[in-house]
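debug: dumping io for the single-chain case to check the tokenizer round-trip. Nothing else runs in this session.
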Amino acid sequence: MKRDIVHTDKAPKAVGPYSQAIRTDTMVYTAGQLGFDPSTGQFVAGGVEEQTRQVLTNLKHVLEAAGSSLGQVVKTTVFLKDMADFQKMNAVYAEFFPENPPVRSTVAVAGLPAGGLVEIEVVALVG
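debug: decoded output
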């Protein structure tokens, strides 16, 4: 089975010893994405809604670079700094997965890198 490193300049660079994603013959596994604008390296302005939108846009670009798409996502994991932001995150998330959404786990965490409000990772099919 092959194991290819996926990288795109349309999403933020990895800020540690990890890859944006790994593609196998049939699956893509992404690293968690934060709400960084890849052109500035800074968080997008606003709150959890804007960061969620940027996170999912970043994931879209990573998946496309891997030969996949948001429509091929089978599992997401959402990490929220504050579970009080769940409804706001969920409304934006629904824009990206309007029909037949993937399975999902959402957990509150004590903190996220660089003070982020939301981080999402996905597992998707290739093709």
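debug: round-trip ok. The longest strand covers residues 73-80.
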